[in-house]
Amino acid sequence: MNANDAATLTPLASRQVPPFTYQRTPTSLLPMPTIPERIILPSAEIHQVFALVLASDDAREAQAFGVRWQVYCQELGFEPAGRFPDRREHDAVDERSVQVVALHRASGLPVGCFRLVMADPQRPQAPWHVEEVARALTPGAIPAHAAGRLGCAELSRFCIIAPFRRFDAGSEQPPAGIGAAQWAAETVHRRGLAGLMWLAAAHIAVTLRLDWLLTLMEPRLQVLGRTLGLDFQAIGAAVDFRGERRPYRLDRRSLRLLLELPQTSALVAPLAAQLGAGIATHPMLRNYLAARTERIGRT
């Protein structure tokens, strides 16, 4: 299968995950979280500017691929734009991925996205991207056996289109359909969009009762994540992959603790409503929702 051939992607409704069971990692075996005493969260008003939607149909998924094409092909040059004539960047692991799209409410523009690559119950030993790129991982940092690997997901293709990841309203031209005054007023909320997207990923992971979220990212983003209370744990040395990157993981225990904080819970509550319907109807997640009741260590 050509990972970059648009014709090879299976329609989302056909990407059903077969029934599976696995045992959760008991909470006592997870690291003790180190959540900072003071965390800096976006203001609640950010929900008036942005919506985060889980892509549970092909049209919404195509919006995520479009954002990725703009960022990875046009803006950053990480992927050849000509490889995707429909302007939708994707690869083979999107067959087992869940996409989340950030929408600018006033204009309806899709402006950001990320994906959670889920384990394949039929091939649980298939390597994660983190394992392929950062080969010298901390021993035991990622479960080696199938039952444990089914409790992992990989956070990747986390991106925001250029106008919405720049914050100088005075020099940046607003996208079409957004007035200058509105654009300036929304500057502070654009600064918080990445944080809101990270918290959405945390909410999905906790909802699905996943044990681990894996990611490969710039070390400076780990520092930014800590300001939100995300307890990123480095699980290997830095590598050269489109610049300096390092493998990290987040665990269920730390995510639950963060999301239970009163200020975080209040901010995430509207996300739960927005993402909940997508989680419940996504073809790939039905058996994850069923399997979560069959795991041990539910604390």
Task: Describe the secondary-structure layout.
Elements: H1 46-49, E1 50-54, H2 58-75, E2 97-104, E3 110-118, H3 129-133, H4 146-149, E4 152-160, H5 162-165, H6 180-185, H7 187-207, E5 212-217, H8 219-228, E6 233-234, E7 239-240, E8 244-251, H9 252-260, H10 262-281, H11 286-291
Parallel strand pairs: 4-5
Antiparallel strand pairs: 1-2, 2-3, 3-4, 5-8, 6-8, 7-8
3D architecture notes:
With 299 residues, the protein is α+β, with helices and mostly antiparallel strands. It has one domain (46-292): Gcn5-related N-acetyltransferase (GNAT) (Aminopeptidase, 3-Layer(aba) Sandwich). Helices cover 36% and strands 16% of the residues. It contains 11 helices and 8 strands. Strands 1, 2, 3, 4, 5, 6, 7 and 8 form an 8-stranded mixed β-sheet that branches. Helix 7 (187-207) packs across helix 9 and helix 7 (187-207) crosses helix 10 (262-281). The longest helix is centred in the middle third of the chain and has 21 residues, at 187-207.
